[in-house]
């Protein structure tokens, strides 16, 4: 289910603070007064710290290797936060781009990403496409749904109400024709929970990085506007897990229930 390294340290509080403030891990916890154990986590990656001074002295120089998303962004953040980068980012002969940070306990933390993934993150989008922060019009929304084979029994009033309920939305536009070629909606309570809904890219624009641009715009808004440590969820079709993982989404256990349709009521 899960594996987390447990690092021996001389100061749990300082270790948690360093990994949170310098390395950027958002979630943190400590146990004991004063703390004798603690940890940090970021999406599905966690690291724990145990107060064991003698073992910590003998463990200096050991390392942890982490495969991450958006390696260039993470590298820039660690440089800005003045992390001790002992090996700068370079493409390695085994197909990974990698750099190494030495933490305050003397452990070496290797951050890496496949060279292909790193290059893909910098792919140039079509010049005739732009992302606009707005909700799709009813006609645009229906046209996009129809282009991917989604059928809806909602009338225009209900579609309008559904669109109005979105806290935020983005639309990808073809600047040459002025048509909407993709969209995504964000629902939620604006405080603790958000839900990504209706990520749609018109059939003839798929596999051109349009979906990537839409999700980047949506997650950028969340990073700057959502409450700290809020939960963001989505449902996806089979085979799309890898696409959404690049934006920080991971699998989670859940259950769903559909309200009865008119046919079932009969």
Structural overview:
By secondary structure, the chain is of the alpha+beta class. The chain contains nine helices and 13 strands. It has helices at 12-21, 53-59, 71-80, 115-120, 138-147, 156-164, 210-225, 241-245, 262-265; strands spanning 6-9, 27-31, 37-42, 45-51, 63-67, 84-91, 96-102, 108-114, 129-132, 168-174, 180-188, 193-201, 231-234. The protein has a five-stranded mixed sheet with strand order 9-10-11-12-13. It has a four-stranded mixed sheet with strand order 1-4-3-2. Strand 7 and strand 8 form a beta hairpin.
Characterize this entry briefly.
The protein is an alpha+beta fold.
| Sheet with the most strands: spatial strand order | 9-10-11-12-13
User: Low-confidence stretches at least 5 residues in length (pLDDT < 50)?
Assistant: none
The helical percent reads 25-40%
Give the strand content.
25-35%
Count of separate DSSP helical elements = 9
According to DSSP, the number of beta strands is: 13
Principal-axis shape equals elongated
The average pLDDT value, as a whole number, equals 89
Helix-strand makeup class: alpha+beta
Helix and strand element order: EHEEEHEHEEEHEHHEEEHEHH
- What is the first-to-last residue Cα distance? 43 Å
- What is the CA-based Rg, rounded? 22 Å
Summarize the main sheet: 5 strands, mixed
Topology:
Blueprint: E1 6-9, H1 12-21, E2 27-31, E3 37-42, E4 45-51, H2 53-59, E5 63-67, H3 71-80, E6 84-91, E7 96-102, E8 108-114, H4 115-120, E9 129-132, H5 138-147, H6 156-164, E10 168-174, E11 180-188, E12 193-201, H7 210-225, E13 231-234, H8 241-245, H9 262-265
Parallel strand pairs: 1-4, 5-8, 12-13
Antiparallel strand pairs: 2-3, 3-4, 6-7, 7-8, 9-10, 10-11, 11-12
